[in-house]
């Protein structure tokens, strides 16, 4: 499970929490074991990647014309999906 906590300085951090409940023969919980992991940096990086992907996806989807990339090998990498509408 993931949670967001607010620190005393006002910043937010993201934590991943995993754990298990240990039960006796009657099914009653007698102990919990778990760990918390700070995933703030990973979450911030993920948000930046998603924003970048959304930006470039919008650019390509709304571009009227021919758009392509060619790497050093000169193989065609990307052609706009709107080419058929030209």
UniProtKB/TrEMBL annotation:
Gene3D superfamilies reported for this sequence: PAS domain
Keyword annotations of the record: Kinase, Transferase
Entries under InterPro entries matching the protein: PAC, PAS, PAS-assoc_C, PAS-like_dom_sf
Molecular function as annotated in GO: kinase activity
Species this chain originates from: Methanosarcina barkeri 3
Protein name (Swiss-Prot/TrEMBL): Sensory transduction histidine kinase
SMART domains named in the record: PAC
Residues annotated as domain PAC: 1-51
